Amino acid sequence: TPLLVFNTESAKRELTALKDCTNWQLLNIDIDHICDLADHVSENMARVSENPVDKNMFKELVEREGIMSLGLFNFMEKHGLNHSPVYTAPANNHYSWPKAGTLLGLGIDALIPIQLDVNFRQDVKHLREKLDEFLKNKTPVISVTAVMGSTEESAVDPIKEMYELREEFKEKGLNFALLADGAWGGYFKTMLIDSPGVDKVPGKNTLRKLRAAHKDKIYDGFVPYCELSEYVQEQYEHIQLADTITIDPHKSGFCPYPGGALCYRNGKMRFPIALFHPEVFHGEGDPTMGVYGVEGSKPGAAPAGILMSHNVIGLSNRGYGRILGQCTATTKLFYTMWLTVAREDDPFVCLPLQDIPKGYDLESVKQMIKNKIAFKPLVEIYRDEEVTKFLKECGPDTMINTFVKQWYQRRVRGRSRNTLSSVIQLGLSCHTMSLNSLTSNTR
Q: Does the pLDDT value for residue 190 go beyond 60?
């Protein structure tokens, strides 16, 4: 059975017989080849064998010798693997990622955090450095994670560039799964999906016409829509390059149900971890959720509710995409507010953590906000091409504004009027008041 693996002598990937592959080569074959390997081997055995091959018996043999049966320690010891496998995620990863390492028996140290850039996105340069290190030491890499909307800053990682990096390292002999964590930001993909019909939401080709049609109209019912930035759009256009995508409907899907989804590029990836116990598996024709995950049997009410929401609202730019576009428009206005909320005579400054877009300077941006955004009607804001261009590119990637406040010590006659502790206490009190005023209390 031939496999496409990296050959050190020729310094390129070549078809090599399975029996001639080294352990390092087998640890770095393509996922699609892994998924089909057992079937291909049994088919080739049937061609050359005089006796019929029992596929079920062969399948049982493969399962018995696999890591799911032997366990990580016994599997590594049997095959002489000296380096425990690792997986990477950006430094602002969700707490479920280190939890996964403990669940798999890899340990928290198996998760390698990748540094972030100034916009809280994964630094591909640092990722490259770590992959070079793993390749040099022949450390197996299980996966590399791109977060499509981080929990705190809603930052979208450069998944297109990360995919290209994976393809590059394939040619050097290091291969791994590319995972997209879309738990928060997965639904933003709907902003890029067209649906049939002429009544589409404002997009690249229709915003100009909409502004022209409503040029002389000011009315209270205007609902703004803001596109994703060019960078974020490019990442969502390439999210399907990932081998798996996780998504949580209870976040940007607005579904208050205990449900989630794991989408596989190759559906066969879920088979090695499946346990077809008769309590939860009732045959191929019966819909089954409990055999492929760690949770086991679970109720069907939550996914049924999510499916209904999808069907009613729609997974396109006329459904969820429209709602998220409206939310994005409000998010961008909040960004401009945090950027300018502190006046010159205030004893504090407020600074959004996301930098202003390239090509703009802070003073001109503040002047634009003062003259064209602050206290202006929404329809007036979003029919101004200069303003809409800025709003599209500014602020967070997927709706979560993050900012910091810094309090100054007022000085009177050269001496500080407030002690450091009182300034810190003042800041904490202000933070508490802000939190309370923005928190809904239904009791």
A: yes
Q: Where are the beta strands (DSSP E) in 131-185?
A: 141-147, 177-182
**What is the arithmetic mean of pLDDT over 209-233?**
71
Mean pLDDT calculated for residue range 16-27: 92
Q: What six digits make up the tokens of 108?
A: 């928290």
pTM value is 0.86
Spatial separation of the C-alpha atoms in residues 30 and 177, rounded to whole Å: 9
Q: What is the DSSP string of 194-229?
A: --SSS-PPP-TTTHHHHHHHTTT---TT-----PPP
Residue 414 has pLDDT above 60, yes or no: no
> Which residues have C-beta within 8 Å of that of residue 431, sequence separation ≥ 6?
405
d(CA 111, CA 299): 32
The C-alpha atoms of residue 279 and residue 442 are separated, in whole angstroms, by 42
**What integer best gives the mean pLDDT of the chain?**
86
Please tell me the distance from the alpha carbon of residue 166 to that of residue 18, in angstroms, as a whole number: 23
Spatial distance between the Cα atoms of 310 and 261, rounded to a whole number of angstroms: 13
Q: Whose CA is closest to 276, among 266, 286, 290?
A: 290
pLDDT tens across 303-335, in order? 899 999 999 999 999 999 999 999 999 999 999
Which pairing describes strands 2-7 and 86-90: parallel, antiparallel, or unpaired? Answer: unpaired
CA distance linking residue 171 with residue 176, whole number of Å: 12
Q: What is the DSSP letter of 370?
A: I
Separation of alpha carbons 418 and 144, rounded Å:
49
The torsion angles phi and psi of 355, rounded to 5 degrees, stand at -70, 160
pLDDT > 50? residue 372: yes
Using an 8 Å Cβ cutoff, are 188 and 398 in contact? yes
Reduced to 3 states, what is the DSSP secondary structure of residue 172?
coil
Across the strands, what pairs with 15? 4
- Residue 187 token pair: 């639904």
What six digits make up the tokens of 429?
Answer: 């009190």
Q: Is 243 helix (H, G, I), strand (E, B) or coil?
A: coil
Q: Tokens 């499916």 sit at which residue? A: 307
DSSP assignment letter at 299 = -
* φ and ψ of 86, to 5 deg: -130, 165
The letter for the amino acid at 202 is P
